[in-house]
Amino acid sequence: xxxxxxxxxxxxxxxxxxxxxxxxxxxxxxxxxxxxxxxxxxxxxxxxxxxxxxxxxxxxxxxxxxxxxxxxxxxxxxxxxxxxxxxxxxxxxxxxxxxxxxxxxxxxxxxxxxxxxxxxxxxxxxxxxxxxxxxxxxxxxxxxxxxxxxxxxxxxxxxxxxxxxxxxxxxxxxxxxxxxxxxxxxxxxxxxxxxxxxxxxxxxxxxxxxxxxxxxxxxxxxxxxxxxxxxxxxxxxxxxxxxxxxxxxxxxxxxxxxxxxxxxxxxxxxx
Length: 271
Known about the structure:
Order of helices and strands: EHEHEHEHHEEEHEHEHEH
CATH architecture: Alpha-Beta Barrel
Oligomer: single chain
Strand order of the largest sheet: 1-2-3-4-7-8-9-10
Helix content: 25-40%
Radius of gyration: 18 Å
CATH superfamily: Luciferase-like domain
Number of domains: 1
Structural class: alpha/beta
Shape: globular
Strand content: 15-25%
């Protein structure tokens, strides 16, 4: 089991300096990952940090901790731009970047407010096409693509990301909707969410079993569980129980502006 910080990019009053300080503290305290949400708008009262610029600073100021977005609503991004950004972050971090992707949970804030009122079906189509484009561009070879939503005509993208065969891709999905988990089975990890407020260990187990049916092997495949630990090993025993069910990452949820509280919690090390 690896342990990461999973922090909203509209936490900490949107101050990139505070995110950077937490990330450095997490590496010093033995955490394995630092992952930021990727929302563009969360209401007029919310202060938001750009995760891509912030993670570039984190990459430059750390040496070991994995970094990434969890998750980027890829259908609202141009895939060729994301391909460049991810390659740069992977090189900057010396091969530590993980790209989390999904449809995006907020249709109003991340889409409709900016004139991108796409249906779930269209977002899913754009997500699948974008993933195919990312893989093609990261190959460093001549690449063309003709899809329903995107067209690319004979381009070669270099430099390539450091990681091989590609930067790991984690796909998010809301259980028990099955299609996102079939998509996740084609890539390197799954970030499950639930229709209910909290996802149960039974639901995580169901996700694991479903993904297994759609893969030849679970070797080097990541399944991420999230939560808020109490600091009491007995109360937090469910984290170790999840490892026995096949979870490979536990990420600690942080969503507010309580910087000192988060810094103290991170400083104690993983639960």
